[in-house]
Description:
By secondary structure, the chain is of the alpha/beta class. The protein has a single domain (4-174), classed as TIM Barrel, CATH 3.20.20.70. Helices cover 41% and strands 17% of the residues. The protein has helices spanning 11-20, 35-52, 62-68, 82-87, 98-107, 130-140, 156-161, 171-174, and strands at residues 25-28, 55-59, 72-74, 90-95, 111-115, 145-148, 166-168. A 7-stranded parallel β-sheet has the order 1-2-3-4-5-6-7. β3 (72-74), α4 and β4 form a beta-alpha-beta unit. α1 runs parallel beside α2. The radius of gyration is 15 Å and the shape is globular. The mean pLDDT is 96.
Amino acid sequence: MTARLLCPRPLWEQMPRIREAGITRVILREKDLTPDAYTALAERVLRVCEDCGMTLTIHSFPQTAEKLGLHTLHMPLLLLSESLCRKFDTVGTSVHSMEQMLQAEQTGADYVTAGHIYTTDCKKGLPPRGTAFLREICKASTVPVYAIGGIKAEHLPEIADCGAAGACIMSSAMQL
């Protein structure tokens, strides 16, 4: 997931560095932007992602995904709907409890991000849910689960051990 304000350069210039680090999919999570500003950023990032061989997933702006001809979408659980899940090839959402994971599956999500797993500045003061939570979600889920929150490269073996399909890295990827 992206956080352009953490980047030492424009976000679109960060994409090649992210790809060089082995990341193949980016969720453009810039929720503070207006729809027009988000779409303008998405257009620039998409061009670079295509050049780098990365998949761009739109976060929270289904109209932008449609406009750009993209088939992957990530929505907050409160905005996830069965109609969006039918409209796009791949739709994901973030979950923070077993109940939310079950709701995401029932609504039609194709994957979930579960967290936050480790301590992170993005959730200052909130204790992490930890790997026991991740293991429980992975065991119960019928869709792929990606760990999120405070993820660093050294956590990847532990995350895989929990049964996760992968991990979302934000802060460290933005500062490569």
